[in-house]
Amino acid sequence: MNKEQHLLTDTFGRQHNYLRISLTERCNLRCTYCMPEEGIALSPKSHIMSFDEVYSIAKIFVDHGVTKIRLTGGEPMVRKDIPVILKQLASLPVELSLSTNGINIDRFIDTLKANDIHNINVSLDSLDAEKFHQITRRNYFEKVYNNILLLATNGFKVKINTVLIKNFNDNEIVDFIELTKNIPVTIRFIEFMPFDGNKWDLKRMISYQEIMNTVYRVFSQNRVHRLLDAPNDTSKNYKIEGYKGSFAVISSVTSPFCGSCNRLRLTANGQLKNCLFSASESDLLTALRKGENIEPVIQKAVQGKLGIRGGMDTLEKLKTPRLHTKNRSMTTIGG
Ligand code: SAM
Ligand code: SF4
Known about the structure:
By secondary structure, the chain is α/β, with parallel strands linked by helices. Helices cover 30% and strands 17% of the residues. The chain has helices at 3-7, 51-63, 82-90, 105-114, 129-136, 141-153, 173-179, 208-218, 284-289, 295-303, 315-318, 321-324, and strands at 18-22, 68-72, 95-100, 119-123, 157-164, 186-191, 224-226, 235-240, 246-250, 263-266, 271-273, 282-283. Helix 2 runs parallel beside helix 3 (82-90). The chain is globular, with a radius of gyration of 19 Å. The structure holds S-adenosylmethionine (SAM) and iron/sulfur cluster (SF4).
């Protein structure tokens, strides 16, 4: 095993070549499943990584084998220095991508093009403006929808992330799939997951199985093609015959994909999380600011990664509030 593989390989032999970096805890939406209604206590600005610190930490991961970086948040595009961050990270030998709520895409589309960033995930939970308002507590449906079209017509590879909630937007599954008839985007239905303060309840979640039941009620079996998933893919991918786009399901709750996990997460205040569901964190930023070598901290974090969902290996454990409320809210992890 060479040096690169060693630092980012865990005790289960999983090699981590994908780093998700949250750039900010702030957001211009307030999605109910992501943020508690009362908002979250933000870290002081001085605790948030500067653009140079983001670059320095990212570079160390790239030197040790990371080939893919996704920027997320909060909302990454509310950071004023986003053009600088994109430019710096684009100079690294990685596939750079972005997860966004889409509100600021039109302002930065030229910056994305200039830095060769082609893969953009945009969150959109409803095709109904009023429902969009209810779930995000803000009135930006048209802006987001038009920006998705803008990305698609400009040749970006767009994935639309849709968190399904029972009796709220589960009646839109087919409408979302119909969107892929003429627009070459991928709709990714995400099972609603538990995080601190998001009032998770298994009864409000729509499972992979339920999604597929709906699909097969409307589309005949021979028109629904199961696509080959990419290596380390978190989603099960499908396509309706003849449609330009595709759809997928991310089943973190009912069918976790931890065995092939290749992801690590860096929070906006410089904490390394070895798993989305893990409550433990390793402080890279303080070590970096002290001028210390952060590699041993990274190695310890990677070695401490548990096999399945940060130790919540059964649905019973996932349903135990005591276990998942020790974790952060999703908006400060970044998805
Ligand atoms: N603001 C950006 C956005 O909305 O895409 C990036 C950050 S957001 C936290 C990343 C992804 O996490 C979004 O697609 C969002 O839908 C998803 N997400 C947030 N809370 C979730 C939850 N409780 N269950 C499942 N997905 C969730
Ligand atoms: Fe903001 Fe994204 Fe969370 Fe919605 S899902 S509140 S857009 S961070």
